[in-house]
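On clarity, I found the account of how folds are encoded harder to follow than it need be. For illustration, here is how one protein appears when written out as sequence plus structure tokens.
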Amino acid sequence: MPLSRDTYETVPCGLSPAEIFAKADAFSVEERFKGTMSGALIAGSLGGKVEQIDQRAGMTMGGPLSDSDNCELVIGEDHFTVRLSQSHMAGTPRASFIVAQCVGHFILHVPTVKERYGHAARILVRSRPTTDNEALCQTEAQLFATRLLAPPDRLAFEWNRAKGSLVKLRAVLGMPAENIIGLLGATFATKSATLA
């Protein structure tokens, strides 16, 4: 999909996972985040909105799709829109993860693009990355979302509640299994090191 004028790809932030986790933790504290992403949080703290897309009809719930029909996040000079497909209904764990991932893009990648190309730069984040840079940005945003939605204390609580079932944990957290496995490994490695 070609990008329209004044529209740019995200630029990787280049932070380590620990630095990305620190940014997610700081956002969580600053926003008094309670564990579930919502349109109200996006509107209140970031000045944005969550929009449902009906791709079968070629429409958003407010009008026809534009060049951003394959995008989950659209950021312009005066707007921040998270776009959820019909298969990711607002309020579900998966939709919460997608919104958290978009917040990750907003926190990690937008400042660099705005600094490089100016405040009026428009940014589209594709649902399916088409370049190596986009793929790296997706990974960085997923790390942010993973930490935001499952900080160590919540992860331990949900793990115990799921009785060690990755399937149940994935359903509750709405994130890819590989992200959960990585979090579990990091959490239990830290606990083991603390106990030793």
Remarks:
- Residues 150-196 form one domain.
- Helices lie at 17-30, 39-46, 93-108, 110-117, 132-149, 152-161, 166-173, 177-195.
